[in-house]
Write a structure and sequence with these properties.
This protein is of the alpha/beta class. Helix content is 39%, strand content 19%. It contains three helices and three strands; from the N terminus they run βααβαβ. It has a three-stranded parallel sheet. α3 links the parallel β2 and β3. It is globular, with a radius of gyration of 12 Å.
Length: 89
Amino acid sequence: MREFVIDVTTVTNFDAFVAQFNAGYCQYCGGHWHGRSWDAFHDYLSWLDDESFTIRFVGWDDCQGLDDGDREMIRNILLDNPHVHAVFT
């Protein structure tokens, strides 16, 4: 199973999270998330032809750039995509 790593260790704001998501995932599926739409974030998770894959968020607990609402939205969108195995370390 393919794994994508999103390193949020040094993320200090939402734009930096978007940049890390693009670098760690979107570039591999031919997209570029601008961060303005949660629907687009959701859609990118279906762009790959892989039956399933893992997205590992490194530094999740220590990330200063995401507020509780952003964290909840990300988790809910990932839960809505059962083909994506999300790991938060």
